[in-house]
Amino acid sequence: MLRNPDIRCVLMARGGYGAMRIAESVEWGAMRRDPKIFAGFSDATFLHLGFARHAGVRTLHGPNLHGFAGMRRGSVKRWVAWVTELMPPESIRSLNAPIRLAGGRAVARGPVLGGNLTLLDHAIGTGVMPSLRGSILFLEEVNEPPYKIDGMLTHLRLSRILVGIRGVALGDFYRCKPKPRRPELPLREVLGDYVRASRVPALAGIKAGHARRNLPFPLGARALLDARRGRIVFEQGLVS
């Protein structure tokens, strides 16, 4: 599909497991020579990272084919706009991020990189991890209790891949609750501890990830993270 010039978008059928297994066989150079849209989320994070590092292309974090059946009409409209228009209107490129977790400068600008926290954690030390310096880090997660999220964020910090990030944008952390009768720090406190330590603007509440609404969210595209207005606005499209 990456070699075929007639294919302009590769959409993951579903997430789950397996992207790491095929990463060594992906022909990254084919994407670099003929950029096309790669779309999907969750397990696809490993491939998003590889395309960012080896091909330098912008990709689309968003629903897999499996998730289209339950999408609202407005969400489908957003997805179609991203994959068909050179520069979608600002109403498409702007997403609400209503929860302010940390301050730093009120505004940050840079390419957005990241995806599912577990896959990002797995990518550390591998050949697919791009440099995050100068970027806005996007994270989302599902079904992981706060203590595991704490461990993964600690690994990211100790690996020093977070050095030089300009901002943090958090999507859904869906069903990330403590196990019954297990004393743990609340999720918001865990997330707050790490983003405050980074000393950059950090916003949360973006409808992107494993919850019911999973709005398309470009990766590798330059964006403005505006803590004053509680939103993130993408300044680049995807269509080459």
Describe the structure.
The chain has 240 residues and is of the alpha/beta class. It has a single domain (9-234), classed as 3-Layer(bba) Sandwich (Glucose Oxidase, domain 1), CATH 3.50.30. It has helices at 19-22, 28-33, 45-54, 73-84, 90-93, 117-123, 146-159, 187-198, and strands spanning 9-11, 37-40, 59-61, 94-96, 99-102, 107-116, 136-142, 167-174, 202-204, 217-219, 222-226, 231-234. The strands form two sheets. It has an eight-stranded mixed sheet. Strands 1-2-3-10 form a four-stranded mixed sheet, covered by helices on one side. Helix 6 links the parallel strand 6 (107-116) and strand 7. It is globular, with a radius of gyration of 17 Å. It starts with 8 loop residues before the first strand and ends in a 6-residue tail after the last strand. The mean pLDDT is 95.
Outline the secondary-structure elements.
Elements: E1 9-11, H1 19-22, H2 28-33, E2 37-40, H3 45-54, E3 59-61, H4 73-84, H5 90-93, E4 94-96, E5 99-102, E6 107-116, H6 117-123, E7 136-142, H7 146-159, E8 167-174, H8 187-198, E9 202-204, E10 217-219, E11 222-226, E12 231-234
Parallel strand pairs: 1-2, 2-3, 6-7, 7-8, 8-9
Antiparallel strand pairs: 3-10, 4-12, 5-9, 6-11, 11-12
Helix pairs in contact: 7-8
